[in-house]
Amino acid sequence: MLDIVKSHIKKNFSFLIGKKLLVACSGGIDSVVLARLLKELKFNISLAHCNFSLRGNESDADEKFVISLADKLSIPIHNKKLETEHYKKTNKVSTQMAARELRYRWFDELCKKHSFDFILTGHHIDDEIETFLINLSRGTGIKGLIGIPETNHKVIRPLLTLTRNDIYEYASKHNISWREDSSNETTDYLRNKFRLEVIPNLKETNANFLTGFKKTTAHLKSSLSLVSDYMELIKKLVITIKKASIEIDIAKLKDLPNTDFLLYELLSPYGFTSWNDISNLLNAQSGKQIYSEKYRLLKNRDDLILVEKTKFKNEHIYYINEGDTMLKSPFLCNIIQVDKVLELSPNNLYVDFEKLVFPLKLRLWEDGDYFFPFGMKGKKKLSKFFKDEKLSLIAKEKIWVLLSENNVIWIVGMRSDERFKVDDETKQILKITYLEK
Question: How far is CA 45 from CA 1, 18, 36, 117, 119, in A?
Answer without folding.
Answer: 20, 10, 10, 10, 10
